[in-house]
Amino acid sequence: MDHRQFIAQIQAIVKEYSYETLSAYIEDIDLAIQKDIAPLCPDARWINRNGFKSLLFLRHYDLQCAPNDITRGSILVLDFVSLFQEPGYAFTCFCLANHSRDLYEETAEILHGERSIQLMQQWLEAEEEGSVAHLAVAATTSCSFMHYYIREDAEGALEEGMNLFKATRQKAEKAGWMSSFGMERTLFVVGETLCQRYAKGGSDDELTESVHLLLDILNLFTPQDNFCFTTLDTLVLSTIFNLARTIESPEIWFKCLSGLHNILRVYTLGESNGTDLPDILLETLDACLSAPTSSAACVLHIADLFHSGGKCDELPYDQFCSEDDVMNNRSLWVDSWEDDRRGLREAISNGYICPHLVFSFKAILVHRPSTSGTIHFRLPNPVEVHDCSFEFEVFPLSGRPNAMPQISLDHTAFIRVVEKICKPMSRDELSFYINNIREFNPPIFSAVPRQWTQSPCIRACLLRTRYLQHRHFQDFKELGSLMLTVRLDKEPGYAHILCYVANEYRDEEAVMTSVDIAAPLFQEYIRVQEKGSPGHFLGVVGLASTLMLSSFHHEAAVTLAASLEILREALPSGASWMTARKTVIIGRILNYRVRHFSTSNDALAKSIPILTCILDLLPSQPPPYVSILELLVVSTALFLSQRVSAKDWHDAITLLAKGLELHVTNSDSEPESLKPDMKKILDTLNLLYNTSLDALTRFTLGLEAMCLIHMADVLRYSAFDVSRHPQSLLLSFTIYQRSLRLPLSSKVTDDAQVLEQNDLKWAWEDEREALRKAITAYVHRTILPVDSIPKSSYTFEYRVLREKNTKFSEHKCIFRYYPIEGHLETFDDARLDLDNLQLEKNFHLPWPDDLIVLPAPSDSSVPGLPTSSILPGIDKFLSSNENVLSLPLEQRTIKALLRHLGSEVRHTENAVFNATETLINQSSRKIYMDPSELVLETRLRHLKDGSAYLARAGPIQALISKGPEKCLELVDSSRALFWTRLLRLRTSFDGLPEGLAHRLQETAVELDHCKGQVNSGVSKDEAIKQMKLETSFERLVDQVRSIPGFKDFLRPKTYDTLMKVSSEGPVVVLIGNSSTYAALLIRQSGIDAIYLSTLTEKVLENLSIGIQQANRASRSILQEEEYVPGQERAGKPKNSARSLPPYEKMLGGLWQHIAKPVLDRLGATSNADPLKRTRLWWCPTGPFGFLPLHAAGIGFGTPHVESVSTYAVSSYTPTISALLEARSKPSLLLNSQLKMLVLAQPTTKGHTSLPMTVNEVKVVEQFTPPNQLLRLGEAGTSLTISNSNRTVEDATIHLAQTSILHLACHGHQDRGDPLNSGFELEDGRLTLARLIGCQTPNAFLAFLSACESASNDLSIPDETLNLAAAMIYAGFRSVIGTMWTMDDNDGPEIAQTVYEELFKDPDQEVDPKLVPYALDLAVRRLQEKGVHPSRWATYIHLGV
């Protein structure tokens, strides 16, 4: 007996040991040697305790499959056994090596791989070279080297493997191991098969005979290119490998190979030799798994790697698309596999079958987890179980690989390829390419457009891969910056990366900047999604939840309103807000699917009904209640969505749905006749438990599910509030924000902690165990025990505080949740309670058009006016006896918060008003500390910065807080600050002490002549000089105010002074800001105000913009239709008739919302007698300054016209003070005292011709005595020649003696520099700045027949920096101007009527009060001619 025979006997004995005996002998090896080995051993030197123990470990592994047995056995053989001296252990060494190799593939633990190679090398060194077994093991060892190289990137392993492979190949060629299938594939297929037979105890003769049969089979395979196989190849090889592992008898083994060879000949060639087929062959054929990841695919892939020197050839990258495409390709693979399986089974009877598809393979290295954990319900392994190092993706080819068409990629497929290239890179490689992006140039770049490869976002693929590996914040930050630059309509391939980044930022709930970055990312993602698609749905839910978080960070109700409106898009058509929980949860789950698995819309659409079914099984709770079961199920679904791959996802959630149905209803809707695939369903069960349910062992209210439910509840009750009480969202949101900072009482807090730690903990465990039992019962088709059927679910009420909650959960929430009260509730009662709340009915109330519009006001000193500008409408809620809000708080808490908020608002109102008044007073008396602040450009910028608040918010706040009297003072002192400061220098100093008056007059004149008053370009010295003069002037003013009787010198006018403006008729001051608008009505009887209740910010904006657009459109059309050659103003020849814009609609809007309520309050509409019309002045502030209030009305061109001019003759004034100042001058002038300057500009360089301006000159000449006309040309020339096309200097020289100025030319409103606005004359522009500097002591009327002469500056309308206002401040008592472009034909007609009325009696005095009536008559005449409103509405009158 030699050593091999001795060890063979021992192996036979060990094979018969029971598990208990093995365990005992492993613990006491000496006992085993004494009882079973020593009696058989002929030579005591052969007794090797460690060698014998390795046999026990090997057998123990066969029974237990514990990886530690192979580890311990391998170490013993490597350290204590020499095969040269003890060759009997060679077979044990081989088996341990084989198992170590399998464990290395399964676990990726490097020590298994190293021991496998060491054991095989030890075997090869001890065994005879050239034998069949030696060749087989050598091939397998080189394969192990290749695996080691691929996993560990060890170049040394590749070199060793290649050397061993080359030597083995030479020996195999000499031995005749060659077939048409390719040398490498043949070597490794034969080697793998023989190793399996050797492991079954196969002899050299058996192995030799097997080689011949295997080569016959392989010669029937069709040669394929590298990394390309057919399902027939892998099916036949899988069958061979499985037969080699399972068959003990050599005779049956040979018979199976012969039978397989025969049916393959029939299937591929149509030839048969009539061999009988063993049953085991067909059984094994049927048992082969169709998944592309199999031992056959692995062996072929390794063979092709050796053929290519360890490098994978470039594959058809255009095939790499979405996960759904991969799944479709796998389905095609399975179909082809089944066709080949069926064809092989039926080949003998059906004969020749047509050839099959060719697939290319892409191997992806996977790192499998350790199998040391518990495995539930494990069935015996199927015939073939191969835990491969690779995961294969298959791609069907239309023909031979070398005949593939040119690659054609879309951008999405291209980015998928780039990501797959990045995935296996090490951190160092990724870092190198990220820092040297130009070096990143994989072969695929040559097959796509250059702009794709040059995109900065290519770095995003590398950054995301590195971030996924190491979670470094800097990568995350840079990834966010890159994604913010992406435009998905141009680069759609980045959609899934952008979605991933958006969700990552959104998850950082506690960081405001992260939430703010997530919102625009979601917006971009939604922008390219088809509306109604799952992608659009998940994007909308993601954006809505992000905006809701942002609203709490910024305390902005408008953001919550946006969240509500956006989420409404995600709700199913006709669904109520009751489904908000379901919508938010499903949207979040789908976000995880796209984020982690790049799931396509089709796969998402398949998920939605299953998830809906799961959530529908849970009784929905009203805010703020939630059930433990709901938290458990939602948490399970969230865990699954992040951890389960596409191939198992739908099976897992379907199983969850089935188990939940059984848990809740104790019934199973699935027919008993259906017989599920038990292996598959048990695998799904293990997956469901391992990835979700078994991980949810510890209950905490910090779960993400809790946060999602709370978020949905906030949206639900907010929707409920605004549906019941439109315009209450702002108040509701403010109250809820305050409740988040309202501390719980110590007793409540203690009770909450006890509730959470005890009741909820046990309820969670009970629910989890019950659900687990229900799922298991569904899988095994067993009946649930009566005591395990749930009759109720634990439901609790929760409170929320604004506290970061990261202590017990990975979910980084900005809230902390406290359970307040818990109780058991039956499922039926839960549904009944919800029905009794009638929330469905309430949620179907009308949805407001504007969620953020403020509530309707309550009574105040001004009827209808809100009592708060900070939180309008709060008094209504404070005085209400009903439960006005549906917040998830006790009603007494809501009432207390409302009262406290009301008190704070009233206090804040007073404080803000006082601050506003102080700011306005300081602005009117600006103290300059630096010469640069005196520069005109700087002063205008400061006015722009403060004008909006001071002149708009300030007065309306004063009206609400202090009444109309204080409001009037604030309106006048907060507007026209530029003019006020400038005109103080032209104040009369009469009545002051002579010396002081003289010094004031000198300083004022010198300061008035400073260049910096009206010009931007001043030197530093000039600025310093002006600052010194400013300081001197202010000191002198302070001296004056110390004199008795002069304390208010140059201070804003008081209420009593301002009320004098109503002496000749009412003045209407229009004020407002942010949807609260009112009109001050100044009459001789006193002042009151009217709240413009129908006027909102949106309405006002629409009116302003609508009138501007209608003006532009109507001008364009009218100029085309009224085109006369040589008389157009920027017109074009007529092409076609077009309809005019709805201009009358805009004037009707002005009438409805502003003019009619004002006139009704004044009582003007009660008298329609044209001779008794009211004389009315408009003083518009802010956006009102752009509206033609004088033209408001309805029914123009009909007998039923009703308009402002029906009841009043309108004028405008920039401020109340300006009108008082104009009235303070002499009221009447004799005709003989008048001097008229008329300037016309029929042609102007760079502008269209204005031929009708000559006619205006003729009109002036017709009605004005010759001695009163200021002629600028030579004596004797006609006025049309002497006063046409004159220079700026000509105009300014004569202004001092001018009483009436008539300008007929182009006007220009400079939006960038208001003081550069002016009139276009022959040599340039007569600017506003130039006009300010002119002295006009005799000024009476300025007729500005030019475009936009009364148009305000958009940025600072309350400064009234327009040409018409400038004339008022320059001293003219009356001004006729235009609000927008005028028609060239209308100028002469308007002028003729005005001057005809003014100069009816040349011997009488000219009354300035006639001017507005004359203009009103002129406009009426245009109306009677049917002229379009855009032409006559532009004319307005300013002044007395």
Automatic annotation (TrEMBL):
Where does the source fall among the domains of life? Eukaryota
Q: What is the lineage of its organism?
A: Eukaryota, Fungi, Dikarya, Basidiomycota, Agaricomycotina
User: Which residue intervals define the domain CHAT in the entry?
Assistant: 1147-1439
**Name by which UniProt lists this protein:** Unplaced genomic scaffold K443scaffold_77, whole genome shotgun sequence
Could you tell me which InterPro entries the record lists for this protein? CHAT_dom (IPR024983)
Query: What's a Pfam family this protein contains?
Result: CHAT
